[in-house]
Structures are given as structure tokens and as C-alpha cells.
Amino acid sequence: MTYQEFVIKMQNRLSYRQKQSGNVYSVSAETVEKIQASYYGLLISVSTISDAKWGINLKPYYFEFLESKVSMDDMVDRIDRRICYEIEHLPKYDLSNLKDYEYVKNHLGLQVINMEINQDLLKRMPYTQIADLALIYRVFLDEKTSALVNNNMLKYYGISRDQLHSDTMSCVQRKAPFFIRQIGEVLVDISEKILKEEIPDEERKKLKKRIGDIKNDPPFQIYIGGIDGAYGASVIARPDFFEKATQVMGGDFYIIPSSIHEVIILKDLHQGDIEALETTIWKVNMLKVPEEDYLSNNLYHYDSSNQIFETAVDYEQRIKNGPEMFM
Predict the structure, then answer these.
(1) Residues with Cβ < 8 Å from 327, sequence gap 6 or more?
(2) Could you report the per-residue pLDDT of 130-171, keeping only the tens digit for each?
(3) Residue 92: burial class (beta carbons within 10 Å; 0-12, 13-18, 19+)
(4) How far is CA 202 from the centre of its chain?
(5) How does DSSP assign 118-159, residue by residue?
(6) Do the beta carbons of residue 303 and residue 316 sit within 8 Å?
(7) Following DSSP, what letter does each residue of 55-120 receive, concatenated?
(8) Of 301, 296, 320, which is closest to residue 312 (Cα–Cα)?
(9) Is the pTM of this model over 0.85?
(10) In whole angstroms, what is the distance from residue 232 CA to residue 262 CA?
(11) Which of 269-297 are b and which e, b meaning 16 or more Cβ less than 10 Å from the residue's Cβ?
(12) Which residues pair with 136 in a beta bridge?
């Protein structure tokens, strides 16, 4: 059985079950579009709530079905229970607020995503290009839950993308503080939190030694930056972040796109190997970063004198070509 056949069978069986039990929800097999992680699976709609829709990626269930020989009926039971649980625990939001731009403009936020792998999605929403990345706009219903602003919403509000961008920047500067911390401090904080947990004595000793080593010789000129909240890497869209980072780093710096959640900042010492750094970024992304959190394999650079954020490759080329690039 192929994955597509598995999804169709699930759709048919769940739909039949719903006809027998009151049609609490409806289910369709289709491509569920998400930022850089679209998948073919099930789209669930709640009968009593017109705006309540979400997707379920059935691939984990499919592989389990193939490997463990769980019956199709048992798999249908599990997915049905999951859907019913999610319906029962749906957060209660007043989605009519999304139609009121006076409300929306005080709840706007940013997310930066990979532009190349999200080309199709970007056709349906306003965005701003930053180097080879795309800055998109969200309306936050709470600290963790948000809705993407799409072209239809922009048309309904009767505003331009420039107005949306301006209002969003104003909102995040008021409501979304950013942080820049030496990575050694972050490692110490994490380690000290672990020490408060119940761990074996031998592990506790090693961790205390590690904390001491970090405090005595902290990672120098390496910082982590982001926003206190969701999608922290969008900090690279903010002039106030670059101004502060320039002060902290004492001039130009490189930015490693750790994920969509934060960035790593390295002082430009004019002696780095860009190719080696980008190879490291690629390896970490391949092995450690979940697909939905991936941002870029590129290394970036901030030219503090000219206030230019660009890929490190473009920076080197620009410097090599000389001042005529600005003419």
C-alpha cells in the first residue's frame, strides 16, 4: 500500500465513522500547506466552528502501520481519538478580531523564512525580501498562536504592504523585546537548571566542572540573539537589533541562522573561512534542525558602517569590487 492509498483509506473510514456518530468533524485528503513543511495528509474541519481547520501528517502512522502490522481498524481508532481530543481542547479565540484592523495592528508580529523553498506560499501573502530571506507577517492571538497575513486579508483591510510593514515594525518594537546574550552565559544557565533536577552524582560532577570551565573561559565574541517570544530569528529585520548588536560586537559581525527561532552572532575578525563556516551550518541543519525550524544554510554579514545586511558571499564580493558598488 502506498502512502497516498493509506491517506485515502483513512479519509474514507473516518468519514464513514462520522456519518454513524453525528458528524462532529469532516475530513478530506489533500496537501496541507505549511511554511517549508507542506505535506499530503488529512485536513480536519470542525462542523460547529467554521474557522477551525488543521492538518494531520499521516506519515508516522503509515510507517508504523507498515512496520508493526497494526490493523487498519486500530489505526483509524487512534487517529479518531486524536482528532476528538484536539477538538475538545481547541483554544477559544474570537476570530472575528482578524477582521478588525484596529485590533490587528496592535497584535502584529514577524517571521523570517527561507524564500526559495517557500516560493509557492509567498505568492499568496505579502512579504519583504531581506537578502535571500523573506519576512512575513503574523497576527498573534496569544504568545504562541498566530495567523499568517495573506493577500486577501490585506485587500480586506484596504492597506498596502508598506503600511502593513510599517505597522508591524512599530508593534514589535513596542511589544516584542529582543535579547543578545553571550553564548557562554546561556550554556551556564542551561547547565544550572539541569543541576536542580535529579541526576546521577557522576553526571552532576561533570556538569559542575563544565560550568566552571565555561565561567573561566567563556566562548569569546560568540553571542545568541532573538526575540522574547515566537520566531526569534525575525530580529534580523529590526534596525534596533542591528544598532545594539553593533555596540555589543564593536563593529561588523557575522550572523549564523541557527533556526527560525534565534541567530548566532560572531564578531567579524577579518580572518574567518566563510566556506568552512557554511559547511558547518549545513551539517548542523542536516543533523540537528527540524525541517519546520530550518532557515538557511548561508552565512550572513552586517556591515555596520553602511548598515547593510547581506549574505557573507555577497559581502565579500561587494568589498572585492570596491566603492563603485555604491555608485
Answers:
(1) none
(2) 999 999 999 998 877 888 999 999 999 999 999 999 999 999
(3) exposed
(4) 36
(5) GHHHHTTS-EEEETTEEEEEEEESSSS-EEE--HHHHHHHT-
(6) no
(7) EE--HHHHHHHHHH---HHHHHHHHHHHHHHHHHT-----GGGGG-HHHHTTSEEEEEEESGGGHH
(8) 301
(9) no
(10) 5
(11) eeeeebeebbeebeeebeeebeeeebbbe
(12) 111, 127
Cα distance between residue 297 and residue 256, in whole Å: 9
Size of the chain in residues: 327
pLDDT in tens, 23-55: 788 899 998 888 877 889 999 988 766 667 889
- Is the CB of residue 11 less than 8 Å from the CB of residue 29? yes
Q: Using one digit for the tens of pLDDT, what is the confidence trace for 285-312?
A: 888 888 888 999 999 999 999 999 999 9
Backbone torsions φ then ψ of 245, nearest 5 degrees: -65, -35
* Burial annotation 32-47 (CB, 10 A radius, 16+ → b, else e): beebbebeebbbbebe
- Calpha distance 135→111 (Å, rounded): 6
Give the residue from 83, 74, 71 showing the smallest Cα distance to 47.
83
- 50's CB contacts (< 8 A; 6+ apart) are none
